[in-house]
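FYI - complex with zinc ion, inputs then prediction.
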Amino acid sequence: MNGCPFCPPPRHRTIRRGLFVTTLCSDPRATDNHLLIVPNRHVVRFDQLNWLERLAISREQRRLIRIMLFSLSAPSWEAISGYDLWQKFEPTEPDGPVKVSHFHWHLIPRRKNDELAQLSRADFTRLSEEELQILLARYRPGWRRA
Ligand SMILES: [Zn+2]
């Protein structure tokens, strides 16, 4: 795709390139060991991936998670407590150094009380009953709460 930084993926940041998916070192990075899991075919939404691509991506995610949990839990590292695996679909945001339309996932290790944990706790509030009912009605069609 014209102007897409993942078409083709940058070779100097490529960890592994398979038939359907490529793993890259992120640049910029949110944390140390921030990885990107990128479908080889340019799509902008998850539902545009075929089942072979979805399977390959899922397998690559599991492979990287195993490596991350094993290697970063070694004595030389501050033990990690888990990982975040996420993606965003933001068609309203223009592409730039930190936003790429080519659909991809971010995989980042998490440590107890890391900066992201502190940020996520900063504005945490519980759902109101009204908000809960709106969400349930939207995503559980036909469901009625007793
Ligand atoms: Zn692309």
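The two ends are 50 Å apart (CA to CA). The longest strand covers residues 105-110.
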